[in-house]
Structures are given as structure tokens and as C-alpha cells.
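Reviewers of the previous submission asked for a worked example of the structure-prediction workflow described in the proposal, so we include one complete record here. The input consisted solely of the amino acid sequence. No template or homolog information was supplied to the procedure at any stage.
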Amino acid sequence: MKLVYIVNRIDGPGGLERVLSIKASMLADDYNYDVHIITLNQETTDLFYEFSNEINYYNISATGNPISKIYKYITELRKAIKTLKPDVIAVCDDGLKGLLLPLLLSKPVPMVYERHVSRQVENQNDTKSFSSKLKASMTFKLMNFGAKYYNKFVVLTNGNLNEWNLKNIMVIPNPLSFYPTESSTLNNKTVLAVGKQCYQKGYDRLLKSWQIINEKFPDWTLKIYGTISEKENLDTLARTLNIQNNVNFYAPVKNIKDKYKESSIYVLSSRYEGFGMVLTEAMAYGVPCVSFNCPYGPSDIITDKKNGIMVNNGDIEGLAQGVINLISNEDLRKSMGEKAKIDVKRYFPEKIVAQWNDLFLSLIK
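From that input alone, the workflow returned the following C-alpha cells.
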């Protein structure tokens, strides 16, 4: 089967890139798919994650004003699809153009859409003016309109089902990135968070929680790995809260597995998520997680008070207390970590990619 993925870029350190590297590589290597990935304005071939050598790449360069850019992109995309003659097209583009591609391409073959974020991504700050609400409402209507033209619309969690009024929708979660035989000892006085610095990840909320934690456990350290953004002013906030000596910010690293192994607690402070793959990665190392119950993903992954701790979204004191409970109770920390490592097996890549194979086969039949 010839499968074409349409994405924006795959050279970054984000969750979409990691997931695609796993799925596309397994489909190419284990299922003998002829996989092609079409990117937009990605001139580099230096990829952050490792992709199978069997995968083929095609990049489209489209610049200029928005109208000329989209015109050139669609024109070149049509040419590429006509040349490649795929059996199935999978679109991994959370922007509006991605949702409209069945119409823009006249849907030459069965098409599948992969939604990697919540619709809450349209909310980029806590201020919701009339104009921003109107813009979001119009965008959602266009999204729903385009989504109906896909053969299948795939979301990552059961919660995401509530965001879309579609008959073609289904859930396939993200595959686990790795599953090591070893686990964290959970003895290091380190709490970990992973993800780029942005409004979505809620690190401002995490730092306020850490101020509470730091008062009781000043010998513990919070480490945050992810693309650093100066406009988030997290360094300034840490100094304002007087926690700068116990909080460290790091750029993305390829050996993130080592960081999970060296941590004793993982914390997720996101305002919204597409899935929360960092939770499954931490759990694979037997690290218990404390997470806001944000839309959507954590509630699918974490069973509260069994393999981790769930906190009402935005409850800063509750998030702090969840971490404090695990710091102060070593037995609880280790028992939750053991259960987490077992429960996360349901996301093994073999199980998830098999679902994608079944979907693609059903579409070409």
C-alpha cells in the first residue's frame, strides 16, 4: 500500500514529530507500506527523531503573502499527489488548511485526518474578548465543515470525541515512544516536566505551585525541558516567586529518556492537551505523574490515586499538594510508579500501529 502523510514539518522535537516517526517507521518496516511524507517549507533533512530509511520525503516551498502562499502550496501538493498516486492520504496538520484539504485537493483517494491537539488550541491567553470569541466560533464552524469530508477523523482521546459533531470520528491513541526494562529508582529529589514553553503548557501555573512545594521541600528541584521562549518570562516569574535556585530550564534534548529515569515525579500543568504523551513516557520508566485534568488526555492515561494523581484543571494548590503527597510518602510514590509502568503497556506501538493498519485496509477495500 502506498501511504502519503501530509504534514507541515517533521524536523522539530514536538509530540507530533515523535509520534509520526514511530508510526510511519513501523508501517514502512513491519507492514511493508510504501510511505511518503510531504512537508511544507522544510529545507533541512536533519531530523530530531529517527525515521525509517525506507521512508521517502517530498518538500514543498511556498512563500509570499497568505493568498499566493496557499495557492502555490495547493498547486504543488496536487502535482505531488498526482505523481505519487497514493492509495491513502493521512493529514497531520492541526491548522485550518489541513481540515480543508479534502475540498482543496478534490479528495483523489480515501483521506484520514489525525487531530493531535484539542480545539482549545485556539485559546492562546486567558483574555476572551468578543472579537476573539467571534473569530474562534467562525474557525470552529469551518473546521467542522471541512472535517466532514474526510473518510475518517481520528482523535487521540475519548474526551476529544466531545469536541466534534462528526459521524466519521474515532479514537486511536498515540503509541508509546519507548518501554525500557529498567525503571527509575524514584530516589532522586527531582520533579520533571517536558514540553515547549508556551501558554498551553501552563508553566506559569507550575511555578506558582512549585513555590508552595519549595517552602516544604527546599532540597527538591524542578527541571523543565522544552523549547525556550523569552516571551513567556518564566525566568522572571521564578525570581519573583523566589524559587530560581530550585527551578532549571533546559532546551530539548535527544536523550530525554535519561531525564525520565533520573526523576522521581512527573508533573503536567497544561491548560489543554492533545494527548499527553509525556505522561506515558514517564510512566514507562515507573515514574508516577501528577496532572491537571485538562482537556483532553490525562484522564484517559491516569487513573486517579492508583497510577498517578489527577487535579482539577487550574487548581494550583491542588497540584502542589499532589506533588507534596508523593514527595513525603515514598511507599505511595513507588507503588504508583509500579502500577504506572504496568498500565502504560496498553500503548505499546505494536497495538496502536495495528489499529492504523486495520483502518487503512478498511478504507481501500
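The chain has two domains: 2-174+348-364, 190-346. We consider this example representative of the routine output the project will generate in years two and three.
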